[in-house]
Amino acid sequence: MKFSRMLIPTTKETPNDAVLASHKLLLRAGFIQFTGGSGLYNFLPLGKITLEKVRKVVKEELDKAGCNEVHLPMVTSLKLWEETGRADKFGKELLRFRDRHENDFTLSPTNEEAMVNLVRQTVKSYKQLPLNVYQINWKFRDEVRPRFGLMRGREFLMKDAYSFHASVEDMEREFALMEATYKKIFTRLGLEFKVVEADSGAIGGAGSKEFMVLADSGEDDIMVCDACDFAANIEVLDENTKNCTCGAELRVTKGIEAGHIFQLGTTYSAPMKAEFLNENQKLEPFVMGTYGIGVSRLLAGIIEQNHDEKGCVWTKESAPFNVDIIVAKAKNEAQMEVGLNLYEALQAKGVDVLLDDRADKKTGFGVKVKDFELIGMNYAIVVGNDIEEGNVELITRADLSKESVAIDEVVNVIMEKLGS
RNA sequence: CGGAGUGUAGCGCAGUCUGGUAGCGCACCUGGUUUGGGACCAGGGGGUCGAAGGUUCGAGUCCUUUCACUCCGACCA
């Protein structure tokens, strides 16, 4: 993409209402835009690209683990919610409305009922199990108090997966597989995180674990052990707990809940009469698990963990572009030609690259560098006066270090850095 | 849902106490000068001052009602 053709409204001023770094920076760098409705944001081009990148990582790892992607309507009939009693239990968080025939509907805040409905209509035998189906789709929760931008919006992108099994043992196997899969996803996204013991809350079920992105601004307090892997949400621990089961002292830290996996059992399948025939020709309710990842919340989490005073610092797999080619003087034909050549060469190698070709008189070199730092792409190649000596400057966003590299070598250098 | 704030140009704000022609910075448009770290000069466009009602010769400003948004708390897969 060329910067001159993209809608990237970066600003110098920080929006008054934003408190968190991720909220401020995503607004300032032009990833998202406030709509005027509480907890509702427009995703501008950069935000949309980043969201798709994170979604892709989630999808790839789930598909590798044998999950099936489907798509459910955002609108579900309230009748499904009444089958499990959650129409009442969820309360005002369900945004309800009626259609022209006076039927009740809700915007989906989660989809246990809808997915059980999908499976009970198609899966009738133990031979079809196990099955893990998921979607990555927009959810709506009429939160009491939306806040912090993408951290707690009313509309948000969530991956919700549901697994169906013939036995508790098999469900526990899948639960472990999902935990391992989530670790791969969070690791690929470059996040520092903890898997913690958690409360199952309104979803119900036996055991659950949360995936916490560690950040001082997190809304959850978690206890972690530095001696072993143990970690738990403070809400599940006895208030007197000060030491880990291994004996070491526990430390309190803050985390952003970006994923949550549950062992559900038959909490939903039993009341909804979602049953299959077992080997003994008897009907049994499916044993279920459910697994969520807040995809749009991850964008906020990545920035909470990776930013500095100049702007965002996206991780390799989350960055909207890996490389920003800054043509210092866009009206200089020789510079623009070198920039274009590098742009095409990197694209040919499959690198996501942005060419800052802006040539208007207000967009000088300083603006381009500031935008690079604010947006937080992984590397910038500055094409400037050095091309007369056959060189360009390579800037690494993470530490803002600069190095002079020969034009002929820079593509290889980038490939090496991105490969590591 | 309790508490505290804020609504004035696309964004950030002043003006409100003490009523009297709607302001500033950024952004935007035109021209010129600049050109490696968010340039400068000159000119220009853009507003039912959140909404409704009231007081007044006159309301952004005073009174009443209402709506929205933000922050703290409670709540929250």
CATH topology-level name of the largest domain: BirA Bifunctional Protein, domain 2
Helix content: 25-40%
Hey, roughly how much beta strand do the residues contain? 25-35%
Q: Determine the N-to-C terminus distance.
A: 24 Å
Residue stretches low in confidence (pLDDT < 50, at least 5 long) are none
Q: Which second-level CATH architecture of the largest domain applies?
A: 2-Layer Sandwich
Overall geometry comes to: elongated
CATH first level of the largest domain: Alpha Beta
The count of domains is: 2
**How would a crystallographer describe the biggest sheet?**
9 strands, mixed
Query: How many beta strands in the DSSP annotation?
Result: 23
Count of helix runs? 10
Radius of gyration: 24 Å
What's the average pLDDT?
94
**Class by SSE composition:** alpha+beta
CATH homologous superfamily title of the largest domain: Bira Bifunctional Protein, Domain 2
